Amino acid sequence: MAHDSWSSVGMATFVYAKCTRSEHRALWSNLVSITGTATWPWIVGGDFNVISSVLEYVGRAAQDLGAIADFNETIQGCSLTEVPFSGSFFTWTGVRAGTRVWKRLDRPLVNQAWLDFAATTTMQHLSRTASEHSPLLLTIRKDGAWVAKQRELEVQQRETEYKALQTDDARSVLHRAQAQLLSSLRHNEEFWQQKARIKWAKDGDSNTSFFHAAVQDKRAKLAIHRIKDNAWTWVEEDEQIAAVAERFFKDLLFADKPVEAGALVQHIPSLVTRDQNKRQLEEVTLEEVRQVVFNLDSNSAPGSDGFSGTFFTHCWDIIAEDIL
Predict the structure, then answer these.
(1) What is the DSSP string of 109-146?
(2) What is the DSSP letter of 163?
(3) Cα separation values, 222 from 137, 169, 215, Å
(4) Looking at residues 113-122, what average pLDDT do you find?
(5) So what's the pLDDT on residue 106?
(6) Domain spans of the chain?
(7) Three-class SS state of 271
């Protein structure tokens, strides 16, 4: 697969799997064999006809745990990652033995090269119409890693031009392209380091791929795919989920008859002694503030002002009194 705005080519594998565990084995074998040669961005998607967890099934029939294990082993063996999705959790529904069942059979999987190419790839499960399967809408957005790659290609082009021309103008253009590449690489690494919140990452480590994977994993875990409204009905569309959440907190904050705090406090046991409470009410000393400041993560910003822990530790002698 390619696009006019892309300077590299990615590979897409479309899957329409058969139904049984034995019939899946040929597909898993083919995907593993492709992995050995797939050094470029690779996305694998379609109807795998198998779930990756029993949580992806609602119905009465027992699920084939062996088939689930085979699928997960293939995903791990191919070093593939789930794409974050929104919409209905299940992508297929049908009637089996007179009972309605739901499964998540359709999904896209990507390798690390794809994440480096377009880390903000997302999937939306659209509403079903004529088919038992939900249509899948894939959104691909280029990010800082892509910009850095474009800068790298420009440097290679300028190097070729300089070797051919050997002029001062060509050398100046090459140096400018090299400076832009270094700037893009630095900004890209800082962005992913901040996004991933990896506290033990050392300054200067070029662990961009690791940061990509950490952010993708966190984003998938934190995504809200459906929620129950006041009538205990499942809501799955993004706009509806946002409306339900907004309405819940509005009702909570602007209730006509709020619950008296005293009625709740009397049921909470006292866990703080008088001595502990007295110490908590003592005036904070400058040394105590200093200890907290110097224990801040150097790469995180503790407030909305955007100043990181490094700023506070380096400028402590100047700003100490202002902080206290």
Answers:
(1) EE-HHHHHH-TT-EEEEPPPSSSSBPPEEEE----HHH
(2) H
(3) 20, 51, 11
(4) 78
(5) 95
(6) 11-140, 145-221, 272-324
(7) coil
Q: What is the pLDDT of residue 204?
A: 45
CA distance 188 to 193: 9
* CATH 1.20.140.10 given to domain 11-140: no
| DSSP letter, residue 54 | G
pLDDT in tens, 247-267: 888 887 777 766 676 777 777
Cα 287 to Cα 292: distance, rounded to the nearest angstrom = 9
Structure tokens at 102: 């739901």
Angle at 285 between CA 284 and CA 290, to 5 degrees: 110
User: Does residue 173 contact residue 156 with C-beta atoms inside 8 Å?
Assistant: no
Beta carbons within 10 angstroms of residue 58's beta carbon? 14
Give the integer Cα–Cα distance in Å for 225 and 56. 13
Q: How long is the chain?
A: 324
Whether 161 and 174 have beta carbons less than 8 Å apart is answered as: yes
pLDDT band at 203 (very low <50, low <70, confident <90, very high): very low
How many helices (H) and strands (E) the chain has is answered by 12, 12
Q: How far apart are CA 187 and CA 97, in angstroms?
A: 57
In this prediction, residues 23-28 reach a mean pLDDT of 94
Whole-angstrom Cα Rg for the chain: 27
User: Encoding tokens for residue 87?
Assistant: 């919409």
Statement: residue 70 has pLDDT above 50 = yes
- Tell which wins on pLDDT, 285 or 212: 285
